[in-house]
């Protein structure tokens, strides 16, 4: 029996027909050609941080890219950096910092591989900033015939590949436009939910990076304002003991204990949510950008996230606030709210519109289907687009209505992979059988 692959959340598992751990482009190409000869599909594996089965590799050749990492070339003057696809974001951030560079924006998790984060449309927050894929200048991929091709701005393949779902080929390298390394002043504070919603637009406009976490059943939200260093003098760095206390003890160990208690006795969850909301602390500190963007996540959960038009965001949140108390199973995890600028990437959730992101979570092991179904019914009315790596039920017919360039993407995919070498059941569902 082969080794079983599982994702981080434990929601997906699969047994590949074969495991391959390539260390070069030549070995990636050879693996793809070998799979074609055997009539097998191919899935390139990242870190398994998608909640959907996008990386599921049952009866496929699983390409473990953990040995294909590192920076290929870098120009500190221009900020142009080419990176191997299996490089994890955490390692990339540290390598860039050593060169005096940084990524302009990041999400709050850095364990994903660069290619995996791009493939699923990973994003951070900031009304003037796009997702990770907007920082891409070029890409190279191994296609279904084993050949390596490069693409950049102006080509249809590039428009498709920046958020490609792993359906076009195996990404080998990514060329990024980085920026000079910068620090962020982080201000995090508990504030009444009603006042946060009332001032949402001004908060989003007046901060480089703004987000908040709403804890169901509680009256306060945790508001995060992260801004390029401008204060004089800025807040000092967070001390080692406080960093350990805040992020390891409170946000992981203590919160994990509360989650397990709620899972054991679900009727306590509303009270635990109110306790968590009331226990939020204020903190202000300065650190390198990637250290502020990223937060350690050790408590397991399941997640669904949708991008909605910015003008519809407050209505969506109002409906969630009305509906959550009526759920049969209470919600243990907070709701995360972020914003992003529009972009021109075909399958980006922010394609062509200013977007608000609403991410809902439930602690692993607690029922979530009713909650996630309710959420989908709310966002469906405003044209919500699901995050490609987070749980949703949409299929190609519905997604074609949400993405103006959906058929263009399908056309490019069929051209570069006519036999469906890089498809799996999830991709067949969301892209449709050719």
Features:
Uridine Diphospho-n-acetylenolpyruvylglucosamine Reductase, domain 2, 434 residues, alpha+beta, 8-stranded antiparallel beta sheet, Uridine Diphospho-n-acetylenolpyruvylglucosamine Reductase, domain 3, 14 helices
List the helices and strands and how they pair.
Layout (H helix, E strand, L loop, with lengths): L4 E2 L6 E2 L3 E3 L4 H14 L3 E4 L15 E4 L6 E5 L4 E5 L4 H10 L2 E2 L11 H6 L16 E7 L5 E5 L3 H6 L8 E8 L1 E2 L2 E10 H6 L1 H7 L2 E6 L5 E9 L11 H25 L4 H10 L4 E6 H5 L7 E9 L3 H11 L11 E6 L14 E9 L5 H12 L4 E2 L9 H7 L3 H11 L8 H7 L3
Parallel strand pairs: 3-5, 4-5
Antiparallel strand pairs: 1-2, 6-7, 7-11, 8-12, 9-10, 9-11, 13-15, 13-16, 14-15, 14-18, 17-19, 17-20, 18-19
Using the coordinates shown, work out and report the CATH topology of the domain at 67-180. Uridine Diphospho-n-acetylenolpyruvylglucosamine Reductase, domain 3
- Give helix % range: 25-40%
The unreliable regions are: none
Largest sheet: 8 strands, antiparallel
Give the integer mean of the pLDDT values: 94
Question: Which strand order do you get reading across the main beta sheet?
Answer: 16-13-15-14-18-19-17-20
- Which structural class do the helices and strands define? alpha+beta
Query: How many DSSP-defined strands?
Result: 20
Which CATH class of the domain at 67-180 is shown?
Alpha Beta
Strand content: 15-25%
Could you tell me the radius of gyration in angstroms? 21 Å
Net shape: globular
How many H/I helical runs?
14
CATH architecture of the domain at 67-180: 2-Layer Sandwich
